């Protein structure tokens, strides 16, 4: 079975490209923290190449930026080619079946503001449709919800 699940941050803003048959595709690198520290007590990361196709590639390019936190599910794909020096080169990438955005717009904006990268696309969005916390239809509910195990049968 060839399945991969990763959580990490984009190392750069992804760019949307199109194949000769007009299929959207994007490639980016994902920084994934290792679960242990090195001898100096510092956490290291692996930088893994990711490929995303079709509508999901468009969504990634429209809504994610450098530093965005995502979860990737997909498969490993390897390949090889002959370099200009005649040496055989090997490639390794994850072809994403699913990309989950793990940050809200607010968290993304706060992160971008703290890194001084300037305004985000959300800064220019019309915010007139925001729902107030006071408009929460479940705010006064107060009771727990019980679901019988036989409910799903």
Question: Would you write up a description of this structure?
Answer:
By secondary structure, the protein is mainly β. The protein has a domain of 107 residues: Nucleic acid-binding proteins (OB fold (Dihydrolipoamide Acetyltransferase, E2P), Beta Barrel). Helix content is 13%, strand content 42%. β2 and β3 form a beta hairpin. The longest helix has 10 residues. It is globular, with a radius of gyration of 21 Å. About 10% of the residues have low confidence.
Brief account:
With 153 residues, the chain is mainly beta. The protein has 2 helices and 6 strands.
Number of helical elements: 2
Cα-atom radius of gyration = 21 Å
Order of helices and strands: EEEEHEEH
Extended strand count: 6
Assembly annotation: single chain
CATH topology of the domain at 4-35 and 43-117, by name, is: OB fold (Dihydrolipoamide Acetyltransferase, E2P)
> What gross morphology would you assign?
globular
């Amino acid at each position: 079975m060839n399945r991969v699940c990763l959580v990490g941050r984009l190392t750069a803003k992804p760019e949307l490209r199109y194949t000769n048959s007009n299929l959207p595709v994007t490639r980016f690198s994902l920084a994934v923290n290792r679960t242990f520290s090195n001898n100096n007590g510092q956490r290291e990361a692996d930088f893994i190449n990711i490929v995303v196709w079709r509508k999901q590639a468009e969504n990634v390019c429209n809504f994610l930026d450098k530093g965005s936190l995502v979860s990737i599910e997909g498969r490993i794909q390897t390949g090889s080619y002959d370099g200009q020096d005649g040496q055989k080169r090997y490639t390794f990438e994850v072809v994403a079946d699913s990309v989950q955005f793990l940050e809200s717009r607010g968290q993304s904006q706060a992160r971008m503001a703290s890194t001084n990268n300037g305004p985000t696309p959300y800064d220019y969005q019309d915010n007139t449709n925001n729902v107030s916390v006071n408009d929460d239809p479940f705010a006064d509910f107060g009771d727990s919800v019980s679901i019988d195990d036989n409910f799903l049968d």
